[in-house]
């Protein structure tokens, strides 16, 4: 698969790293906003990039996915700040991240937005509705606990596996909810 992975300035570098780890066998195009770079440095000290990652500057529009004529399977913005959400909802395209999101919406391709911020105000909620109505998949970073994760990586993977499900990447080791026959 050909996947665009972007990160903005919200907290949640662990989700980005776990996605990079799990998507290492795919063609990955990575955009980090300046604030994303700062958050990554603060939270993890840096990213471990798979060798197949192609990095793009958020200030450039010379990436293939900045045009609808280039075929890509999905774009994930993880983490997605509320500022980025608002700019996507209102169609501003002043950076590569925002232009790519606009392209994925207009071409009806998978755009998955993973906000991590809380609490929300009414503007955030209205922007979430706007991007959902435009065709985006809105997947807040809300980890699950039924798998009883024991490490931060396992906890983050409860969100990452849901993202991979939405992209269509098989996740054989994902913790899945099971109906117990004893509970009937």
Features:
6 helices; globular; 6 strands; 184 residues; Rossmann fold; 38% helix; alpha/beta; six-stranded parallel β-sheet; single chain
Walkthrough of the structure:
Helix 1 (13-22) packs across helix 6 and helix 3 packs across helix 5. The chain has a six-stranded parallel sheet, with helices on both faces. The radius of gyration is 16 Å and the shape is globular. By secondary structure, the protein is an alpha/beta fold. It has one domain: Flavin prenyltransferase-like (Rossmann fold). 38% of the residues lie in helices and 17% in strands.
How would you sum up this structure in a few lines?
The protein has 184 residues and is α/β, with parallel strands linked by helices.
Structural class: alpha/beta
Count the E strands.
6
> Given the structure, what is the number of helices?
6
Low-confidence stretches: none
Instruction: Return the average pLDDT rounded to an integer.
Output: 95
For the record, the CATH architecture stands as 3-Layer(aba) Sandwich
List the helices and strands and how they pair.
Blueprint: E1 2-7, H1 13-22, E2 27-32, H2 34-44, E3 53-57, E4 74-80, H3 82-89, H4 96-106, E5 110-115, H5 122-134, E6 137-138, H6 152-167
Parallel strand pairs: 1-2, 1-4, 2-3, 4-5, 5-6
